[in-house]
TrEMBL record, chain A:
It is found in: Cell membrane. Keywords: Cell membrane, Membrane, Transmembrane, Transmembrane helix, Transport. GO terms for biological process: transmembrane transport. Pfam families: BPD_transp_1, OppC_N. One of its GO terms (cellular component) is plasma membrane. It is a multi-pass membrane protein. The chain crosses the membrane at residues 32-53, 95-121, 128-151, 163-182, 213-234, 273-291. InterPro entries: BP-dependent_transpt_permease (IPR050366), MetI-like (IPR000515), MetI-like_sf (IPR035906), Oligopeptide_permease_AppC (IPR053523), OppC_N (IPR025966). This is Oligopeptide transport system permease protein OppC (TC 3.A.1.5.1). It comes from the Bacteria. Belongs to the binding-protein-dependent transport system permease family. Residues 93-291 form the ABC transmembrane type-1 domain.
Automatic annotation (TrEMBL), chain B:
Pfam families: ABC_tran, oligo_HPY. Its main location: membrane. It comes from Caloramator australicus RC3. Gene3D superfamilies: P-loop containing nucleotide triphosphate hydrolases. The lineage of its organism: Bacteria, Bacillati, Bacillota, Clostridia, Eubacteriales. Keywords: ATP-binding, Cell inner membrane, Cell membrane, Membrane, Nucleotide-binding, Translocase, Transport. One of its GO terms (biological process) is peptide transport. Belongs to the ABC transporter superfamily. This is Oligopeptide transport ATP-binding protein OppD (TC 3.A.1.5.1). Residues 7-256 form the ABC transporter domain. The keyword DNA-binding does not apply. Transmembrane segments: none annotated.
From TrEMBL, chain C:
CDD domains: ABC_NikE_OppD_transporters. Keywords: ATP-binding, Nucleotide-binding, Transport. The keyword ATP-binding applies. The keyword Transport applies. It holds the Pfam family ABC_tran. This is Oligopeptide transport ATP-binding protein OppF (TC 3.A.1.5.1). Belongs to the ABC transporter superfamily. Residues 6-256 form the ABC transporter domain. It comes from Caloramator australicus RC3.
Length: 304, 326, 323
């Protein structure tokens, strides 16, 4: 009996690690993923605090100093109306990152609920929801976007509000994919015995969906959401190119790169488009590294 | 007697993130020609890893054979080149794996896989090999062997797959057949068929069998000699009749006591208290110490060694012989 | 030991087999094909049979975890299949299930406390303040320390997980528990711990068990009566002593003789069955066992033997009965 006690005493001392803590430990072992995470944190800090400590305002024109090459006072030079490129890049980071994050939040919210309901109830509900998903997936969004952009310009909607529209549009664009993933996962989870156990316990549907099913898809939600943030940042820059994204004078990394309209700027003022380009590139890469790392770390087959 | 396989002080370790797993720790065994040796023990005690070490199939990394000798027909398998081992594998020594589905290739027909083995090891041409495979399938009691030979593994039931595996293992007339829980996944009636089959084949071909199982009923039925393992170590070994009549190690006793028996009625089953120890955190002395009802002071500190206690019966426990009693 | 708590009549469950692009139904797996039995208070009915013969499906259809195809399941006088979803949900605490696989039957993202306690709250048997004490009590009863309450399933061994599964079922004070191979996935030394636990609890609380297993020696130890299934149907059902001493159906006989006995000095006559289990999608005509039966007669190929009482509450479905 004494021995049993001592074993139990030892167990009591052991630290309790939940699944998330274990995932974090595994993530920390993955060097590339951690590099991605550090870069991402750096970019976020830069975007959030950079503009505050910058001596320039991103909208202040300085016509005496147009398209100046990088110098001590303007580390990344100035643009065609003399605004400090570094400040604008940092501010654009705020816009691009928040467009990415908010769009993905919208997409995750709609996608996981639709996916979960569709997968859980199956039958006719599933069929209807999945047809809606199909419609969203093959809907001609480009013409719609062109229309929306035209309308927004006509009504002279302030660029700051346009950002919200862009976030919303990108979110709406990407939820169907996510809902398909979630639905697939729920379908296979539903066959697992612990869901039958939940049914046998007489739990309500709401609890089964939100406490039993969805938490077990968190790992894939997190992974695809992370990767989608990267996608959203890229989509935003593509939309900017069509004049549909965030419009100047509000900067986003996308529209800063797309401000290059002729070969002359391209060739002689690289400081105006290279820095935002690099920002997009390394942010997207960092997010992808982190996403891959998360995928491994969150492996639901909790190996001990 | 004529020894076919002698394992001396085999050590197979796994190096994992959490630490070193001593899956097989200083295990010695021997199998005579024509003998059936059974290895029993709880899940995770290193039975499969012992078997896989013989064929040098340990995944490296994370696994590594750290020491010992495996002498088969006078040659140390651990010193042979990879090519030489491959020559022995499937020819002189064949193995039936624990999970038949994972060891049959799903994209080839059953026939393909058996014929290939025959052609590789016996240097027969395709026609003869095909004939021989059909014979082998018939021998293991697969009906419609001529048709089954063109079937893919997923088209067979679990019992048929396991029999196909046995046919494949037996066609080359191995001198040693290693069967890793060949019937655990099967039902009693199919299990009876397969055990019956293995017994017949052994009588006909004088093959030695190393049978891994955790079912003591199967042991009693098949074995001539039994080795009991616990946490990577051999704790007891003896002739089958001796072991069942006169079990010595408290773990063996517990195993025998805790299994309900169909021909004996008991009020309450005996149960060994506690759990199998964590491989990363083994007790210092006897590994069975935390669960042993007869544990003594010495057991906590000193690891008992395997000692002969008469009748060819060996046991690793301080209750018997040497360290304590004499 | 008298009141009938569960009565199953002519229960059938056919799974459709679909194939082709349009998922047309091309046939049915007759997983449970006309099963009838009764279970009394405080009684254990053992259900044995080969893998795939429909034992689990029977258990789950009784609990209406999967819908039946035909038949009737009366639990405490109520037809389980005539209840609305909400009524059924309210009835659930009375009938529980312990699963075969202690790994997949526990939600990996919930702590032991949540797993055992959530249904208590959901059914209003405890509130947020009292639930902890209740869960601790049940865990202790199942031989688990109460400080495991904040741990996750992956930190436990198979035997401990099975105890968590048992605790989850017991917490709700059920009257009837389907034990779907609760010890098959466990090691011998752990098996006996769980079997003893189930026996003790039954004595304490007068539970009724439907104990599903393919291990006859375990079934013999734990059951009062034993039913033998073959290809979806019950072929024999009788008192434990009766069925082990005087098996009538040839399949039962073969099954009993095939169990290996851990005694090397004992040599027995063994009935080795020929051939494989036929597919449940296309069971043989007449007696389903005739393709493997050593005693088959001409009549067996054509006429399905009736499942009937041959006296002594010994039910059997074979043309040979009484001889
Ligand atoms: N690839 C691996 N990496 C790390 N550890 C391993 C690996 N393979 C096996 N082990 C460890 O080696 C030990 C022995 O495993 P082994 O497969 O021999 O057990 P066993 O006795 O055959 O059990 P079972 O009855 O479940 O088949 C186990 O503790 C296992 O965790
Ligand atoms: N959801 C399903 N869809 C189609 N067929 C199924 C389904 N579930 C079970 N079956 C089939 O029904 C038959 C009975 O299955 P069941 O799981 O009840 O067997 P069992 O007796 O519990 O076997 P085991 O001992 O292997 O658990 C099997 O042939 C199986 O393939
Ligand atoms: S050595 Fe001691 S602890 Fe180990 S089995 Fe023997 S008596 Fe028990
Ligand atoms: S009815 Fe006929 S075939 Fe079926 S079990 Fe009885 S004797 Fe055998
Ligand atoms: Mg093994
Ligand atoms: Mg089952």
């Amino acid at each position: 009996m004494q021995t049993v006690r001592s074993v139990e005493a030892k167990i009591r001392e052991e630290k309790i690690l939940g699944p998330w803590q274990l995932a974090w430990i595994r993530l920390k072992r993955n060097k590339l993923a951690m590099l991605g995470l550090y870069i991402l944190i750096f970019m976020v800090l830069l975007s959030v605090f950079g503009p505050m400590i910058s001596p320039y305002n991103m909208e202040t024109l300085d016509l005496s100093n147009i398209s100046a090459p990088p110098s001590l006072s303007h580390p990344l030079g100035t643009d065609e109306v003399g605004r400090d490129v570094l400040t604008r890049v940092m501010y654009a980071g705020r816009i691009s990152l928040s467009v990415g994050i908010v769009a993905v939040l919208i997409s995750v919210l709609i996608g996981s609920i639709v996916g979960a309901i569709s997968g859980y109830y199956g039958g006719i509900i599933d069929a209807v929801l999945m047809r809606i998903v199909d419609i969203f997936m093959c809907f001609p969004f480009l013409p719609l976007l062109l229309m929306v952009a035209a309308v927004m310009s006509d009504y002279k909607i302030h660029p700051n509000y346009r950002i919200y529209v862009v976030m919303f549009i990108i979110g709406i664009l990407s939820w169907p994919g996510l809902s398909r993933i979630i639905r697939g996962q729920i379908l296979s989870l539903r066959e697992q015995e612990f869901i039958q156990a939940a049914e046998a316990l007489g739990l309500r549907d709401r609890r089964k969906i939100f406490r039993h099913l969805l938490p077990n898809t968190f790992s894939s939600i997190i992974v695809s959401a992370t990767l989608e943030v990267a996608g959203a940042i890229l989509t935003e820059s593509a939309l900017s190119y069509l004049g549909l994204g965030v419009t100047p004078p509000t900067p986003s990394w996308g529209n800063m790169v797309n401000a290059v309209t002729d070969a002359y700027v391209f060739q002689f003022y690289p400081w105006r488009w290279v820095p935002p380009g690099i920002c997009i590139f390394i942010t997207v890469m960092a997010i992808n590294l982190l996403g891959d790392g998360l995928r491994d770390a969150l492996d639901p087959k909790l190996k001990h | 007697m004529d020894e076919l396989l002698i394992i001396k002080n085999l050590k197979t370790y796994f190096y994992t993130d959490e630490g070193v797993v001593k899956a097989v720790d200083d295990v010695s065994l021997r199998i005579n020609r024509g003998q059936t040796l059974c290895i029993v023990g709880e899940s995770g005690c290193g039975k499969s890893i012992t078997a896989m070490s013989i064929l040098r199939l340990i995944p490296d990394p994370p696994g590594k054979i750290e020491g010992g000798e495996i002498i088969f027909e006078g040659k140390d398998l651990l010193k042979l080149s990879d090519d030489e081992v491959r020559e022995i594998r499937g020819n002189k020594i064949s193995m039936i794996f624990q999970e038949p589905m994972t060891s049959l290739n799903p994209v080839f027909t059953i026939g393909n896989q058996i014929i290939e083995a025959i052609m590789l090891h016996q240097k027969l041409d395709k026609k003869e090999a095909t004939k021989k495979s059909v014979e082998a399938l018939k021998l293991v009691g697969i009906p419609r062997a001529e048709e089954i030979i063109n079937a893919y593994p997923h088209e067979l039931s679990g019992g048929m797959r396991q029999r196909a595996m046995i046919a494949m293992a037996m066609v080359c007339n191995p001198t040693l057949l290693i069967a890793d829980e060949p019937t655990t996944a099967l039902d009693v009636t199919i299990q009876a068929q397969i055990l019956d089959l293995m017994r017949k084949l052994k009588e006909e071909t004088k093959t030695s069998i190393m049978l891994i199982t955790h079912d003591l009923g199967v042991v009693a039925e098949m074995a001539e000699y039994v080795t009991v393992m616990y946490a990577g170590k051999v704790v007891e070994e003896a002739d089958v009749i001796e072991l069942f009549k006169n079990p010595k190690h408290p773990y063996t006793l517990g195993l025998l006591e805790s299994k309900p028996q169909i021909h004996i009625d008991k009020e309450k089953l005996y149960s060994i208290p506690g759990q199998v120890p964590n491989p990363f955190n083994l007790p210092k002395g006897c590994y069975f110490f935390p669960r042993c009802e007869r544990a003594m002071e010495i057991c906590k500190e000193v690891m008992p060694t395997l000692k002969e206690v008469g009748n060819g019966h060996k046991v690793a426990c301080h209750l018997y012989g040497g360290d304590n009693n004499e | 030991m008298n009141e009938v708590i569960l009565s199953v009549k002519n229960l059938k469950k056919y799974f459709p087999i679909r194939s082709g692009v349009f998922q047309k139904v091309v046939g049915h797996v007759k997983a449970v094909d006309d099963v009838s039995f009764e279970l009394r208070k405080g009684e254990t009915l053992g259900l044995v049979g080969e893998s795939g013969c429909g034992k689990s499906t029977t258990g789950r259809t009784i609990l209406r975890l999967i819908e039946k195809t035909e038949g009737e399941v009366m639990f405490e006088g109520k037809d389980v299949y005539k209840l609305s979803r909400e009524e059924l949900r309210k009835l659930r605490p009375n009938m529980q299930i312990i699963f075969q696989d202690p790994y997949s039957s526990l939600n990996p993202r919930m702590t032991v406390g949540e797993i055992v306690g959530e249904a208590l709250i959901e059914h209003g048997m405890a509130n947020k303040n009292t639930v902890k004490a209740k869960v601790e009590e049940v865990l202790e009863m199942c031989g688990l320390s109460s400080y495991y309450i904040k741990r996750y399933p992956h930190e436990f061994s198979g035997g401990q997980r099975q105890r968590i599964g048992i605790a989850r079922a017991l917490a709700l004070n059920p009257k009837f528990i389907v034990c779907d191979e609760p010890v098959s996935a466990l090691d011998v030394s752990i098996q006996s711990q769980i079997v003893n636990l189930l026996c003790e609890l039954q004595q304490k609380f007068n539970f009724s068990y439907l104990f599903i297993s393919h291990d006859l020696s375990v079934v013999k130890h734990i059951s009062h009566r034993v039913g033998v299934m073959y290809l979806g149907s019950l072929v024999e059902l009788a008192d434990k002593k009766e069925i082990f001493k005087n098996p009538i159906h040839p399949y039962t006989k073969a099954l009993l003789s095939a169990v290996p006995i851990p005694d090397p000095t004992l040599k027995r006559e063994r009935i080795i069955l020929e051939g494989d289990i036929p597919s449940p999608a296309n069971p043989p005509k007449g007696c389903k066992f005739h393709t493997r039966c050593p005693y088959k007669m001409d009549i067996c190929k054509e006429v399905t033997p009736e499942y009937k009482d041959i006296g002594n509450n010994h039910f059997v479905a074979c043309h040979l009965d009484g001889r």
